[in-house]
Amino acid sequence: MFKSKVYTERRNKLRSLLRDGIVLLMGNVDSPMSYPANIYRFRQDSTFLYFFGLDHPGLAGVIDLDKNDDCIFGDNVEIDDIIWTGYLPTIAEQALEAGVQKTGPLSKLTDVLMSAIDSKRKIHFLPPYRAENKLMLQKLLGIVPDMQKQYASVELKKAVSSLRSIKDDDEIAHLDAIQDVGYLMHTAAMKMARKGVYEREIAGYMEGLALSHGGTISFPVILSKHGEILHGHDHSNKLANGDLLLVDAGFESEMSYATDNTRTFAVGGKFSAQQKGIYNIVLEAINSCIEKIKPGVPYRDIHHHAAITIATGLKELGIMKGDVKEAVAAGAHAMFFPHGLGHMMGLDVHDMEDIGENFVGYDEKTTRSTQFGTAYLRLGRKLQPGFVLTVEPGIYFIPALIEKWKKEIINNAFINFKEVDKYLDFGGIRLEDDVLVTDKGSRMLGKKRIPISIKDVEEITGK
Ligand code: GLY
Ligand code: MN
Q1: What is the pTM of this model?
Q2: Which of 223, 350, 360, 391 to mutate to test the pocket of ligand 1 (most atoms within 8 A of CB)?
Q3: Which residue range forms the structural domain that includes residue 384?
Q4: How confident is the model at residue 463 (pLDDT cuts 50, 70, 90)?
């Protein structure tokens, strides 16, 4: 946890952004895996962590906007809990760590909410994403799960997004420090990538490294020689020399902050000429996009720059044709780059996605494109100092998509399908780094960049 005053200040800032009523922030509860006592690893709700920092199940926080007081609701552990799961500080002791003086048992939360409803006060809550909290909210407020998203407070979503989007100095120092573990995980994967090794051995080792550093993985490891499957979680393939292995993985720290990097390399350590050709385009895209990141620039423009760089490179290889700007305007690049350039990152690897991507990545001035590919861009709005985001361009050869476009004659003025056919078993290449927007420009998080040049990657892979 950060110092208690960090949380008090955050709650005060939230207060200054909202008019009246009460804010209900629900923590998460333990969730059963296969029978009630066999539970998933506990993960606290990120917004609850942001404003209260307390990482235990069964808590809820109430911020009273009119009375200027905050309260933590939760039940103290009893002797049975202590016998099975150990001692926990009392709710009052925990609350003090978050700078909160008032506490109450969970049973009292219903009374507080009922009295607020009776007095016609606004109750601000965020859209719940877990079944347990949807049921709890139904019990507390009488709103059925299907309607909860609709009743969630737009004011609160906007306020939380505006605060959590700008990382403070403590968060930046922590986000910088935990990149070391991401570095270790990715370089370990490169070293292990030898013929005869199964993907699952590498994915398991990476996850083990994350656990051994006191945290976990920030999302299920994506590691596959079928890099064209954007979020492939199957790890059953045996590697052969020359296979292109895409590894997209991150560390989630003990404070639940994320890292998220992707590297793609050739098993055994030698890229083929064909692999180098595509790799260099993606490398140029990530590096030139990072150079363009600075306050005031809409991230959608940087995504567009990535699309232009990719289309230019593919044209040089004879895979695309025609005018590059027109090709990108028509969305032709998206057959190869069918996703967005990146997303916000912080307490969630896709930061605040539970609140709603459009509240986090877009605003009144920047609306989401509806074009295939760019529509998946999670962050489009103007960048501000303190944003932490990922930059993750990629080029993929997805046989089913190629087949569809060929059959339906989509963008054939810009795509040389005969040439594309030579890449049908290529897979995909994605490269991803984590970047902080600074006052004047940007910088990559962490002390050293995970090897990315062909020379550096070849040197370490399979060693
Ligand atoms: N690294 C996984 C993702 O950004 O979706
Ligand atoms: Mn990512």
Answers
A1: 0.96
A2: 350
A3: 169-460
A4: confident
